[in-house]
Design goal:
alpha/beta; Protocatechuate 4,5-dioxygenase, Chain B; six-stranded mixed β-sheet; two-stranded parallel sheet; 8 helices; globular
Length: 267
């Protein structure tokens, strides 16, 4: 049954695409969250892996599953399909909500791994329409947050807004050792951002670069961080906060997810 109450907004720390075929703390938490939320009418996803010139929204009826990663990953991952329908109507609604920002209706992208590697665990039946919103590579940090603010009405229209990326994402510094302790700079930045979220201080999150060297190492490019700004922009007064799971793996990859919504803390 589709949910009728105001929906939460969720930032997923999506990590490796291989999570789509793994069973671990993160993937089990994604599934648990989806059960707590219920089945939305549709999902709007802002993924770290769709960065464009200008802003676009997928508007096709049947978005393809995009395997946008290298062949070094496990072969079964390339067989994963997430055949969720699209929603041209939701795409047009997003286009209107984001005015005066010009948003083009796109028929060439689809669902990239930032979206489907999470949804294959959260909503494995792939029966909820999914639309992706791209991020304008030339927009300043604050502009991404402001677009999230304009998307707030969707929460009362049965649409689940998700962002998918990572608070700390430095692949060049990663070590493939699950027992390795995180870098000190990763821990400091991670805690700084979490504290700002808990205090509902969006300006500190938007201005994350004020942390200097720690920020430069934790966020070497903004693409995995920006989806968090959309989610925080869609935050509303009274939203309960839950950060779960909450850990850094491989020394420099945050798997923390941020859930904001009424009653969610007790779910």
């Amino acid at each position: 049954m589709a949910v009728e109450a105001r929906l939460p907004v969720v930032f997923f720390g999506h990590g490796s695409p291989a999570n789509a075929i793994s069973d671990n703390e993160a993937t089990r938490t994604w599934a648990k969250l989806a059960r707590a939320i219920g089945r939305p009418k549709a999902i709007l996803s802002v993924s770290a892996h769709w960065v464009t010139s200008g802003t676009a929204v997928t508007a096709m009826g049947t978005p393809p599953t995009i395997h946008d990663f290298g062949r070094s990953l496990p072969a079964p991952l390339f067989d994963v399909q997430y055949p969720a329908p699209g929603s041209p109507a939701l795409a047009e609604r997003v286009q209107n909500l984001l005015k005066p920002t010009k948003v083009r209706l796109d028929a060439s992208w689809g669902l990239d791994h930032g979206t489907w590697s999470v949804l294959v665990k959260a909503y494995p039946q792939a029966d909820v329409p999914v639309v992706q919103l791209s991020m304008d590579m030339s927009a300043p940090h604050a502009a991404h947050y402001e677009l999230g603010q304009r998307l707030r009405p969707l929460r009362d229209e049965g649409v689940l807004i998700i962002g998918t990326g990572n608070i700390v994402h430095n692949l060049a510094r990663m070590e493939w050792n699950p027992q390795a302790a995180p870098f000190d700079w990763a821990l400091r930045f991670h805690q700084y951002i979490k504290d700002a979220i808990v205090q509902d201080d969006s300006a500190r999150v938007i201005g994350y670069e004020s942390l200097g060297g720690d920020a430069a190492l934790a966020v070497p490019d903004p693409y995995h961080f920006w989806p968090l700004l959309y989610v925080l922009g869609a935050r509303m007064e009274g939203d309960a906060l839950r950060i779960e799971p909450d850990f850094i793996e491989y020394k420099s990859l945050s798997m923390s997810s941020v859930f904001l919504g009424e009653g969610l803390a007790a779910a």
